[in-house]
Amino acid sequence: MTGSEERIRILEQQNRELLAENLRLKTSGRSENDSRDIREAAVEQVRQSNIRYQTIFENSLLGNKIISSDLKILQVNNTLVSMLGCKTKDELIGHHILEFSHPDYKADWQKLQEKLWRKNLPSFSLETCMVDKKGNDFWVSVTSILFTDDGGTLGFTIVENINERKLSQHNLLLRERWFRRMTDIMPQQVWSADASGNIRFVNNQSCAYFGCDEDELLINGWQDIIHPNDAGGCMTAWKHAIKTGSPFTYEFRLRNAGGYYHWFLSRAVPVIDDNQNTIWLGTNTDIDLQKAKETQKDEFLSIASHELKTPLTSLKLYNQLAAKNGSPDKKQEFIERSFSHIQRLERLISDLLDVSKINAGKMNYEIQPFEFNDMVTELTAIVQSTTTKHHIKVEINEPATVTGDKHRIEQVLNNYLANAIKYSPNANEVIICSKVVANNIVVSVQDHGIGISKDDLTKLFDRYYRADNAAMKFEGLGLGLYISAEVLKRHNGSLWIESEPGKGSIFYFILPLNGESLIQENGTDGHSYYYSNFLNINYNPEKYRLEADWVGYQNLESVKKGCMIMLDLLRKNNCSRVLNDNTKVMGNWSEAADWGAEYWFPAMVEAGLTRFAWIYSPSKFSQLAANKTLENVPNELQTRFFDNREEAEHWLNTSTLLN
Ligand code: ADP
């Protein structure tokens, strides 16, 4: 007989005796026969009750056990025996109840049991993890309660295997987490709404855009952040979609955390289960750029038609005059007058064709050596013949043979000269200067015209861009500088501007004479220094920082190369600060500004960069490019501009982030 059976036997015996005693008391005074009958009936009642109890205890689909106050198992049923991977009850009886508990969950269970036995709890239920005989863990729900009988207070525990439910809950949770992650890496705002249209979920992109947390958005919805002009239409369309269950599509402006509106395309589809719409799944896609481009295109089309129509109208006029006027001299005069308009038309059309060639990547270059100064002299003579007001002063220092596409480089210079004349209506001089600097030709065209504001300076090389002060007063399509930048880039050159509103501008470009890269590398140990004609980098072990000295003219290629070397040395020396000295920079690198902000600075921060001191170049244009780069660097990075090296060094030295 097992210990528990023995215990039950004793309990039964005690019960029988108790009942018998009660009956004796109740039946005293009755006949002996009557009393015996009653006693036997009572004993039978107890026996039946015990059988019922045993049957329920044993045959339950839930694991049952009875435990003593020292948490030892007194009795178990077979369900629990097999649940725990045992063969006989003896493998459990007499053992501590927590022996089969998962180590990570023991403490919680123990605590609840203690509370129960101290009578601080009437009962408890807990979901916990157990480990069976073979070492497999599984989830159970445990319910414990105390009861008292003659043998004192005992614990009764029901154990239910909830592993499957728990696993499917866990899988559901995992899926939800993946779903959330997936929506968070999407560039769009992703959301869901219930069948009545109340927002129930938004992804991180939405929270980041609106600058608030998910709960706020769920409570408030988008109504208040839709542009007032779009809100009415949007709500009507949304209500219609909810009512009819048809997909929702709408374009509206949403206000971001900074208070600015962006255009979004919102789309949502209903999810239909059992013929009923249960939920809406939606996205908001930022289409602000497309919208801006559409507007720009429309504006461009109207400007282009106007620009093309003006010379055409003049041509038509001269043609009519020539047809009406019989005198050969007059006819000749009208034909000559119409010539400049034909040239203008030709220029506009060829600019438009060039832009489509650039876009399609089909701009061809005929590269061969040519005498640069001859090209300058010939071109200047032609441009000079088109103006009586301006004198073009040429300053050339030495002969230079350039390898490149003569026609295209001439086009760049022609654009510089034509602009210098066009945008200086009240001046009478334009100065063109070309000089050879360390195997490069550097060309500048200076005027004393309207100048360009700081804000416009770095945008002029964008397609169709025209500064405000020029757009209305001067003819043009805003394509010349865009084409020039492309041509120079293809020749490994670059361009930049120095300008002051009201005082005039100097447009520069630089080209390597042989058409090849400007970069000449002079040495590196691959770890602590790198020397070249455009950048010298040293690791300063006493100050734990990289010191980068940029030299001379820069272009996208040199900036990208230099930056990647800096990143490599930062990683190798495990340092966190950079002294970035641009004092000797001559040209600009505006093209590299976006690349620097989007790719390079985040990579530097990931590599451990925490402080970046930037000493300005004397070139205003270069300063603007530097400002543009630092506008969007990661927040955790500390950056500052300096006019001199001492202050920059001081700032870096006083950093509290020394490593
Ligand atoms: P366009 O002259 O046909 O508009 P460009 O691409 O040649 O096109 O020039 C773009 C813009 O740059 C001009 O619209 C003007 O605002 C500005 N710009 C160019 N050259 C000068 C200059 N010398 N002085 C002032 N502004 C200039």
UniProtKB/TrEMBL annotation:
Q: Where is the PAS domain?
A: 175-245
What are the EC numbers?
A: 2.7.13.3
- PAC domain location: 248-299
Q: Which domain of life is it from?
A: Bacteria
Q: Which reaction does it catalyse?
A: ATP + protein L-histidine = ADP + protein N-phospho-L-histidine
Tell where it localizes.
Membrane
Ordered alphabetically, the record's keywords are: ATP-binding, Coiled coil, Kinase, Membrane, Nucleotide-binding, Phosphoprotein, Transferase, Transmembrane, Transmembrane helix, Two-component regulatory system
User: What enzyme category does the UniProt record give?
Assistant: transferase
Q: How does it sit in the membrane?
A: Multi-pass membrane protein
User: Can you tell me which residues the record assigns to a coiled coil?
Assistant: 1-28
Q: Does the keyword Repeat apply?
A: no
- The name on file for this protein is histidine kinase
Q: Which organism is it from?
A: Mucilaginibacter terrae
